[in-house]
Amino acid sequence: MEDSPLYVPLHPYEDFEGEEVKSLCPGLSPAEQVQHAIDCLQSSDSTLQDSHFSFRRWKIMDYSRAYSSQQITPLVVAERLISAVVQSSEPGMDMSFFISYDARDILRQATESTLRYQRGEPLSVLDGVPIAVKDEIDCMPYPTTGGSKWLHKVRPCKEDACCVERLRSCGAILVGKTNMHELGAGTSGINPHYGTSRNPFNPKRISGGSSSGSAAVVCAGLCPVALGVDGGGSVRMPAALCGVVGFKPSYGRIPHSGVLPLNWTVGMVGVLAGTVEDSLIVYAAISGQPEPHQSPMPRLKLPMLKHSSMSSIRLAKSNEWFNDCSNDIRSCCLKALASLQKLYGWETVEVTIPDIEVMRLAHYVTIGSECTASIAHHLEHKGRSESGWDVRVALSIYGSFDSRDYLNAQRIRNRQMRFHEKIFSMADVIVSPMVGYDLVL
Questions:
Q1: Catalytic residue among 134, 177, 248, 317
Q2: Closest Cα partner for 176 from 212, 148, 221, 214?
Q3: CATH says 21-43+57-306 is which class?
């Protein structure tokens, strides 16, 4: 191949202004960015009411309104959350949502948030909102295990990751570290050390991976939002299986400091949430300036999520990709496209994405090579022997890639970037099913 290797997925961009986005000035605090996100939402005067439904998910604004109106306090919410987590961990349920949580630390944060509301001084609408963190992201006072039994012993957690620090500055209650597929090296979420995060819709089914626990706690209604990390669908796949929103931001939008460097050019901190609006609020909170070694990024632009701004959007559909799923999932996704056409007039255009299988293999070589480079020096000790069998198999495959494989993968990455730039010149979004089949334990 004549293409030059592309090691980092950055590409030229054109800055623009428009009525359908809100452009944020550099240097804003996380709380200020959160307020700008609130301004992008459709206004709603609805308040929490008793419902005949046995279950409902609270959204971020539900928490904020309930706290501000003194309908409930963050401390009461924290107490109920801890009780629910304990119940979900008992032998009768064994949902395995969390790897670690500290009830005293949760109550401490909730008490501080309650006092701020009593003084009329909440830090932001996220103040008192419970948010869980995937155990691939540093969050004090917990060790960062990466779903393993050994990684935290050789890489101690000394401070919050940048994204966690930004959420904490907004007053969010960090409620613990969620379960995950060990080292992110799989998509099932089955963990031999900490159990399998079960799907709240059906405990006989998995929640997917690798951000399994984060998707499950949002699905179960324990938290409106959780953080995950996505290198190849590790946020989006469990989100799809659990029926929640999964958002992987573009490379460089969220600082990667304090995140296990398992795959640093493809793995991004992502958001799992019950609604698109909640994912936007948290995305605004954790987005920040690029790392010191990174090229400048365009200004953060937040979409106006209001009915008046739902202008025509062109959806690109590749039949080879879209149809690679079971009939029931394909039918469901086609109905969704038809609904968007009927409600908003959005147009679907047929496109071809060349070399999909080649692209998949190039991604696998890239993510495997980066994982090996990141933890190879640890594997020489106890890491390999203390890992689960599927991780040992994956690490053996990763270790078989040589420099030529890696360079060719980056050439394919460059070529695919140009293919996708062409597609995005014709359409705004590429649509496809996120997972191809329902999955059982």
A1: 134
A2: 214
A3: alpha beta
Place of tokens 């994912």: 279
Return the domain boundaries, the chain: 21-43+57-306
**Cβ 395 vs Cβ 384: under 8 Å:** yes
pTM: 0.95
Give yes or no: 403 in active site: no
Q: What would the pLDDT profile of 272-324 be if each residue is shown by its tens digit? A: 999 999 999 999 999 987 667 667 778 899 999 887 666 789 999 999 999 99
In the annotation, is 210 catalytic? yes
Q: Which of 113, 148, 188, 234 is catalytic?
A: 234
Q: The tokens 């979004």 sit on which residue?
A: 429
Q: Does residue 234 carry a catalytic annotation?
A: yes
Catalytic residue among 88, 113, 197, 210: 210
The H-assigned helical ranges of 198-322 are: 212-219, 236-242, 276-286, 319-322
- CB-count exposure of residue 246 (10 Å: 0-12, 13-18, 19+): buried
As a whole number of angstroms, the distance between CA 211 and CA 262 comes to 14
